[in-house]
Amino acid sequence: DAEQALKQYDWPGNIRELVNVLNRAVILCKDSQISSIHLGLFPEQAGSPGQAAPASERSPDTWLSGLVDLALADHVEDLPPIGLWLEEDLIRACLSLNDDVLNRAASTLNIPESTLRRKVTRMRDEYGNLPPPRPTHWVPVNELLDNLIEQARRERIPLLDYISRLLIRELEDRHINRKEAATLMGVSVPTYRRLISVSP
Q1: What is the pTM of this model?
Q2: Enclosing domain of residue 93
Q3: 41 and 67 in one domain?
Q4: 3-state DSSP call for residue 58?
Q5: What distance in Å separates the CA atoms of residue 132 and residue 86, rounded to the nearest whole number?
Q6: Closest by alpha carbon to 90, among 156, 155, 154, 161?
Q7: What phi and psi values does residue 76 have, to the nearest 5 degrees?
Q8: How many CA atoms lie within 13 A of 109 on its CB side?
């Protein structure tokens, strides 16, 4: 399916885009064969036969499912904290959207300003003023952040709760053991159990 994904993708960039996609796939693939997941190309989700759907055109469920697929396929021993990364990226996006004004960003996230201030302080202590490090396949997340913000507003759910619920639902549908699910959420096992007990 990797060959088919490469052929079907429109390649709007130049040859460097192809080289970067292939290099990333080689790095991410721990198996003997590269798949479309390693490439980050998903032609089955395409809006037209010759082009993979950009992240901004995918549903949040489909997008999260792809992230979990990639995490489980490529990080067998050391699973990434997808939930924590999503929270950090959503906070950064809301700050950017609101010109780094904390009270407006907190309003967008629908959380108390003191909570946002604590989370931002933790992020700055850990990363400084640099963007948090992410794997190369993580780039499409930024394309979907605006859609997530709007979807959470439409459903009248705080944004961080919305993404947490989506990820919990995805993990629970897969029947992943609690330790792996907690690791993917970026929380402890007791915290994960509490989250699933309060998640609708």
Answers
A1: 0.68
A2: 55-198
A3: no
A4: coil
A5: 11
A6: 161
A7: -60, -45
A8: 33
38 and 82 share one domain? no
The two three-digit tokens of residue 108, written as one number:
């967008």
| Pair 11, 59 in one domain | no
For 151-193, how does the pLDDT look when each residue is reduced to its tens digit (9 = 90+)? 888 888 898 999 999 999 999 998 889 999 999 999 999 999 9
pLDDT tens digits along 40-93? 765 444 444 334 455 555 677 788 888 888 888 766 668 889 999 999 988 988
Helix (H) or strand (E) holding 194: helix 189-198
Angle at alpha carbon of residue 77, lines to 74 and 78, rounded to 5°: 80
Q: Which residues contact 30 (CB under 8 A, 6 or more apart)?
A: 73, 74, 76
Cα 76 to Cα 81: distance, rounded to the nearest angstrom: 13
**Is the sign of the CA dihedral 51, 57, 58, 63 positive or negative?**
positive
Residue where the block lists tokens 């079907």: 8
